[in-house]
Structure formats: structure tokens, C-alpha cells
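Technical annex B. To support the medicinal chemistry partners, we prepared a structural model of the target in complex with tetrahydrodeoxyuridine, based solely on the information shown next.
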Amino acid sequence: MKKRIFLIVLDSLGIGELPDAHLFGDIGTNTLKSISKSPNFNIPNLISLGLGNIDGVDYLPTVKSHLGKIARLREKSMGKDTTVGHFELSGVVMEKPLPTYPNGFPKEIIDLFIEKTGVLGILCNKPYSGTEVIRDYGDEHIRTGKPIVYTSADSVFQIAAHQDIIEVDELYKLCEIAREILQGKHGVGRVIARPFTGYNGQYTRTQWRRDYSLEAPGITMLDILMGRGVKVTSIGKIYDIFAGRGICCSLPTHSNSDGMAALDEVEANGTEGLIFANLVDFDMVYGHRNNVNGYASALSEFDKWLGDFLPKLTPDDLLIITADHGCDPGDISTDHTREYVPAIIYEKDGKSENLGTVEGLDFVSKTVLSELGIMEELIACALEASKNAYSPYSEFCVGAALLCGDGSIYTGANIENSSYSMTLCAERVAFSKAVFEGKRQFKGIAIVSVDKEGNTNTACIPCGACLQFMSEFCQPSFEIYRKINGKTEIYHLSDFLPCSFSLREADTK
Ligand code: THU
């Protein structure tokens, strides 16, 4: 178990096209490969951690015994943007891409927006460039008082308004209402307030832009950590990506060097828990501007910083370096690219291990929760709960510990009956207690069994009835933890129950 985890996202450092890259127009893209050809590329520390040994990274030197545990991660969510990438890193997979509106927002959304905000109507409702939209609609907006609503190729709902017509605070309120409306299938990545000033067709945007992110539509590792009393510190735009949810302390930054300075500061002041940092320049300054040499220099600077940072880490620390998507500066497009991302996990005196290619960026959240002792704690709770089993007939004691979305833990044990079929399993007892107390979101369950000889067999699998019971409240990704030979293993509900009975139409489709 670790006391601190430094999780660093090198924004957009992809390592090669995913098998479905053609669906995103990204065949042949490879961010790391593109920058590796630059004369500015010099990353000895990342190489010694094992970056060149990762699957598919055959254009960098390998090392015999790399210092880190390494993997190539394949994104499960259907997207290639910052929000979706970070959600998946933190444990929430989004099967559907965030919605975009190439033909503007549908009438029902606009009508609801007008009704709830009381505005007289809206202008534009099309994808538009931010500077052109105020040039083309600014005068009409001033004449009519109607806000300008527009979008882009990204999943955004933007509202532009002149500061003298709709005051900035009022504009923020319009955005909050839009954010409330834009949920579920219309859950856009961001609602953005775009205030501007000027007159007679000469308009400029002001510094009072404000972004309203979509809250993660599921349980993130941040929710769990916060609920369990583990401190989460954000560095850079992590706080905005998660709309602040699950974060105790935020250090905003303006650049990669700011971010690295913040990491040094947090390391030096002994902050514990999860320190979650995003270094955005790779993407924002270099990737989107197709600046190969700039990107290579930025990664080399990070590598240099890493050389000073690594020796500071103690055996109580873990460092995870990863990315959220690609943004190949060497391809024609300036957009993000659908790529694999690297995962490098380093601990002082840790073992060198290559995990190959791993399904899902949520591998990172599993590592974080496990390394910060959450699974261990659950297994311990389940073992303790097994002592309360009422099992005079089987003399088989089962304990379960259910982890809820808010980090709370509900335990249960089996309760038998003379009429055997009335026996309640440990899992259903834990679930019933939690559901009765109003809990509806569940992350996972640990199950432990103890037989009459007192042997702890922690490899208990829920019975079919319990799986069906769980499927009423849980997603297929709901986790089931068991400990075998000292190692915690994680399964998903869908591993044991690929399909379940449901009366809900949406579930049976
Ligand atoms: N049992 C559980 O509590 N959970 C399981 O996942 C499997 C079985 C209990 C029911 C019964 O009291 C005993 O184990 C033997 O079947």
C-alpha cells in the first residue's frame, strides 16, 4: 500500500493508432513516433523506465531491465477527447461518444432553454467560429437582446452575449440552466460562457469565459477516494474536467512548467493521497498546432524534470505516467487522434514488468484504488463481516463488503434458515442494507468465505441469484474483488453474468 500516488497525464501523448482509428479518420497516426524523429527529442529517463519496451513502440530503444511496470492501454470509450479520456482513466467508460451538433441543437433543447431562462429567443444555433459568430450576429444580439447560441465540431454548447446586454453574472446563470438541461443523451462535454464587448460590428471576447463541464456519468476513483477520506489534489485542468467533484485541493496552472513546479511543491510539502496532474501544453500548444519540434522539446523538458523527480520518491510513493488520447503533430489534421496510450508505473525498488496491451484506460483507476489500499480495506471488512454469519446448517461463513459510489461500505453475511431455500447470501444482505438506506450507486463488492475448519477461502464467486440481484442496481462493469494467493483480483459483473433478466425495455434491447 502506498501513501501517495503521483498520477501524471501527458495530455495527448498517444503511442500509435487504435484498431478502430479508421472510424475517427486517424489511420497511421502516432504522436510519439512523429516527435521521436525531431532533433529536439531526448528522453533518457522515460526510456530507462521502459517507454521503448511498450508494445508497438519499436522506434525507440529498449532497455534490458526497465525500472517501471509498463503497459499499452487501449481506450474502451468511443471518443478521443480530454473529457472522455480522463473519465475512463478514473473508472468511467462511455460507450457512446459525447453528442455533437453539426446541424445545431434540436428544437426541444432550444425551446426548453428559452422556457427555463425566460430569454426572448436565441440567435444562430449552428457550428460557428467564435470570433466570426460575434461579428455576424453581434448587432442583431444588441438590437434584440437574444443570446447567441452556437457550437463547434466538439461537444460544446456555447453562449455569447455582449456584457452590456446580458451581464456576465446573468450569462453564467444562463449557462448553469443550459448545463442542467444538457444531460443524458444531450450531455455535451462543456457549456461555455463567451462574453464580449465592443460596438458597431467591432466586437472582442473578454477574459470572462467560463466552462461548465459535464459531470462524470458514473463513479470515479475520485468519488471513492473522497468518500474514504483519502485526499485528492488536482494540478492543472483536472479540477475543471471533473467539475470539481471528488477533489479536495486544486492547483491551477498555465503551462507544463507550472505543472511540474506544482508537482515539486506538493512532493516537498508531504501531501498524501492522490496527486492528479495534467500537463496540457503537449496538446494545446504543440499537438493542435502541428508543432513537431515544439512537442519533442516539451517532452524532453518533462524527461529532464523527471530525472530530478524520481530520486525524491520513497517506497511509500507510486508514480503513474499516462495519457488521455493522441494529437499527432505530424499528421495533416490539427485534431486529436485515436491512439493507444502508455502507462508507466514506477515505485522505488519496484519490479520490472511488461503487462503488454491492456484493455481500458480504467486500468489506471484500478491501480490507484488498489495501491491506496481501498480493495484491501474492503477484503478486510468482508472478512470481519463473515464472523456475523448465521450458518448453523452449512457451517460455511460468507462475508461481503459493498463499496458504494460515495465511498461508503455496507457489509453483510449469510443468514440461513431451517427451510433451506430461505437462506440469504452475504451479498444480498449487504445490498439490501445499502439500498434500504438510499444508496443507488455501487462500485464493487468484496466477498470472503470461511469454512468450518476455519480456512479462509477468499475465492468465493457470487451465486446466480445474487448476480441477478446485483444486476438490478449495477452496470455490467460493477466490480467483484477476491483475493487469491495474496493478490487481489478484479472481475466484472459481466464476466459472470453476461445477460440478465430485466423488465426495463432499455435493458432488453
Ligand atoms: N453463500 C453466500 O452467502 N454467498 C455466496 O456467494 C455463495 C453462498 C452462502 C449461502 C449459504 O449459507 C452458504 O453459503 C452455503 O451455500
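Notes passed to the chemistry partners:
The pocket of tetrahydrodeoxyuridine is lined by residues 391, 394, 396, 398, 414, 416, 423, 425-427, 447, 460, 462-463, 466 (CB under 6 Å).
The mean pLDDT is 95.
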